[in-house]
């Protein structure tokens, strides 16, 4: 008997959830705000950039093959890893 009552309560709760989903049109605004957060991560933009497909990133920094300056990010040029200043864009 008690179990039957629990099942009914569970089913009722499910119906209420569906109702909230329909009235969730306002929730669409929340989704818009989430999308606005994506552009803040400009890192993804750099990764997609086809002009810099051959670059190496060293968290501790590495010396440029041309000027010897220690930089975190170097690009491949003539089989050498050079810094952004030495890279011929
Ligand atoms: Zn350099």
How are the elements arranged and paired?
Layout lengths: L1 H21 L4 H11 L5 H6 L6 E9 L6 E8 L2 E3 L7
Antiparallel strand pairs: 1-2, 2-3
The structure holds zinc ion (ZN).
How does this structure look, described?
The chain is of the alpha+beta class. It folds into two domains: 1-40; 52-89. It is built from three helices and three strands. It has helices at 2-22, 27-37, 43-48, and strands at residues 55-63, 70-77, 80-82. Strands 1-2-3 form a three-stranded antiparallel beta sheet, with no helix packed on it. A hairpin with a 6-residue loop joins strand 1 and strand 2. The model has no long low-confidence stretch (mean pLDDT 73).
Q: Gist?
A:
43% of the residues lie in helices and 22% in strands. It has three helices and three strands. It has helices spanning 2-22, 27-37, 43-48, and strands at 55-63, 70-77, 80-82.
